[in-house]
Amino acid sequence: MLSDSGYDTGLESQEKQKPHVLLLRTPAEDGYCGTDKYEDAFRARGYRAANVSVLETVYTNLDRLQEVVYRGGADYAGVVVTSGRACGAWRLAVRQLAEGAGYTGAEGVGWSDTPFYVVGQSTASALQSIHAAPHASPYCPRDIRGSTESGTGDKLAHFIVADLAASPPAPGTASTSKKLLYLTGDKNKSTLPAIAAAAGFEVESLQVYATQGSTRFEDDLAGFLGAEAAHEREPGQAAGVEASNPWWIVHFAPSSAKHVSPIIKKYFDVPRHDGAEGAAGNRRARLAVIGPTTATALETELKMRVDVVAAKPNPEALAEGIARFDERPDS
């Protein structure tokens, strides 16, 4: 999956004078965030930036999730959903139930009285869209809370505790238990379960997705680079790599950097601490990272030189760091 930030004719000449920016991440994973904030931050500074996904999602334990969804929410005080991928798993379970022989759609069997607690508006929008889908059913989330009150798992945990204490469910309308269903991925490091448990809640965690290296990364990268070269090629100019055209490659996690490093070396001459050069004719590149942990992994394990580490792990800090580096006389 890849996403290109597009072209602004008013900035075209400025953009051609600046390096391209290749963002090795999945843009707006749940599809409800509008324009991509990283691409926007670079475009505002005159760069051409694009995302190419390095990871892909694999749903897990769907049979177990279908069983939970089918039983309804009477056993739970709430459901905790902290990512668009977890929303996708619920959507898939609902669709499969609606299409299967076991679906009855019986009144009173569902989740309409069970609150769903989310981090951020994008996750809330993803859940709301399930109800609007053609396979809408009593299994769809309706009561969605916490999108504006919480921005992290920790904040969401405290919000859940306070919310359920302030408005306990009425007898006969929802669960009077203190059990929370928590939909997670394979790399879940949230302290949410500990905070909830300390407040007397039982947290039932169910892994519903895992992430792995994208099997399409090289095809997506090659296709994107080919399209970029064709866009910039002058009329009548022969196809070929413009080795003089610089790039920024931005890594966002050590694991994904290790996965794509051998492929990146096929297409780019990346800077190394040992001074080794890449294949002749490869695109020149500099490396930037979203934070110090990723920088350490690239420099110590992959022996690559990192030129920019974002001061904060957000789009503006990353784009500003690269822009300032490019303003240096020796860049």
Give the beta-strand count: 14
Q: Output the radius of gyration.
A: 23 Å
**Number of contiguous helices:** 11
Question: Whole-number average pLDDT?
Answer: 84
Fraction in helix: 25-40%
Low-confidence stretches: 5-16, 29-33
CATH topology name of the largest domain, in short, is Rossmann fold
Structural class: alpha/beta
Q: How do the helices and strands follow one another from N- to C-terminus?
A: EHEHEEHEHEHEHEHEEHEHEEHEH
- From the N-terminal CA to the C-terminal CA, the straight-line distance is 31 Å
Question: Percent of residues in beta strands?
Answer: 15-25%
Query: How would you sum up the global shape?
Result: elongated
Number of domains: 2
Main beta-sheet strand count, sense and barrel state: 7 strands, mixed
Q: What CATH architecture of the largest domain do you see?
A: 3-Layer(aba) Sandwich
Q: What would CATH call the class of the largest domain? A: Alpha Beta
